[in-house]
Amino acid sequence: MALAGSSFSSSASVFGAIVFIVLGFVLNQAYLCHGGTTSTFVRKAEKTVDMPLDSDVFAVPPGYNAPQQVHITQGDLDGKAVIVSWITMEEPGSNTVAYWKENSAEKKEATGKIIQYKFYNYSSGHIHHCTIKQLEHDTKYYYEVGIGQSPRTFWFTTPPKPGPDVPYTFGLIGDLGQSYDSNRTLSHYEQNPIKGQTVLFVGDLSYADNYPDHDNVRWDTWGRFIERSVAYQPWIWTAGNHEIDFAPELGETKPFKPFSHRYRTPYRASNSTGPFWYSIKRGPAYIIVLASYSAYGKYTPQFKWLESEFKKVNRNETPWLIVLMHAPWYNSYNYHYMEGETMRVMYEAWFVKYKVDAVFAGHVHAYERSKRVSNIAYNIVNGICKPVDDQSAPVYITIGDGGNLEGLANNMTEPQPDYSAFREASFGHAIFDIKNRTHAYYAWNRNQDGYAVEVDKMWFFNRYYNPHDESASAL
Ligand SMILES: [Fe+2]
What we know:
Elements: H1 4-7, H2 14-31, E1 37-38, E2 68-74, E3 82-88, E4 96-101, E5 108-111, E6 113-115, E7 118-119, E8 122-123, E9 126-132, E10 140-145, E11 152-157, E12 168-173, H3 180-191, E13 198-201, H4 217-230, E14 235-236, H5 257-262, E15 278-282, E16 285-289, H6 301-312, E17 320-324, H7 341-353, E18 358-361, E19 367-370, E20 373-374, E21 388-389, E22 395-399, E23 420-424, E24 428-434, E25 439-446, E26 456-461
Parallel strand pairs: 1-23, 12-13, 13-14, 16-17, 17-18, 18-22
Antiparallel strand pairs: 2-3, 3-9, 4-5, 4-10, 6-9, 7-8, 10-11, 12-24, 15-16, 19-22, 19-23, 20-21, 24-25, 25-26
Residues 175, 204, 240-242, 326, 363 line the site of fe (ii) ion (FE2).
């Protein structure tokens, strides 16, 4: 059982630690024996407030028509293409990206598209999307946008060629928003001594829809806020409910309008027919992104795509099979309770059959890690509806704790269910650090601690190459 090491802040006093450990042991052993650890860490109660529009993190870059909200994501199936996106406000300007390898004088160019959209009384800037292709794996590139007016230069490193033993490190962030807590989460991710190379983002980006008329100016501020990370490393996008922006009262009835204009995905490369469900290979990982708010029932495009997608995964090439979604299937908080249940019923048997290593979800503004469990025995007559230990099942991690203005989910179901290994209502982020085909190191960091403090951590044993029970590795 993960106890003291998982739930204890290094900033507490020694005396506090002893009291905490003893109390935690008693509670867990005597009273809360149903599940794993419910952390007793208590955050200072404070309201989660969005940063004001004139915050430095929202500053518009200097220069006439300077590119802003620069962001990149993977642009193909295996990591040799990058989609570069940015927005110009005054006029369209150049839609060319110049790019070159580090230490190379040879510059190449690619040309993209410029789009705009209107949302109620808001008109967007000129949104540029440009895919640069045929890059070399594992190579640092510089790129320049805003050519001819106010050029800005950034860089990224392409992932290694997909293969079983190429180490790669993913960051995990969800439900970020643009509050002071959001800024802390992003800073903690940036300052984590284990350096993430790509962010797996599990949905709910800007929370602009919480403002009157879904004020899309807050989409722009969010784009400027995250540029300091996403211009330099790709974020892999999952669509959350705050991306839907369905507002018939404003005459806005096309779901996902701001999100789909601003943030692109390489869905066609994995033969998907919709932008919100797709797959990529990145180094040693095969990442499947699912859409909680697009149809997923039997016969739907997403269902048919996923049915064929699992069969395509070659674990000899990409041993680590990871799924991202927004609404969690295993969530023991009293928020969004069972909202993921219908998708679980549709897809969970495949996750077990194909031995998914980890599922990351958001939506619930807190943190939770499950044991390896499945709940696929039930049919309409047998009544077998309890999650059971299953070493072929994924670990389910809810990491919707980015820090948005809606605040924390701190009301949990009691007692903690058997399947729940660790849960805590704090903001934070995590790292999934793949070492080789058999081992990945996982750690969750809460914003109240130092950058290097890992609160919940465990070694993942790969389900294909190393399918042993790793529960003792939760430290
Ligand atoms: Fe959500």
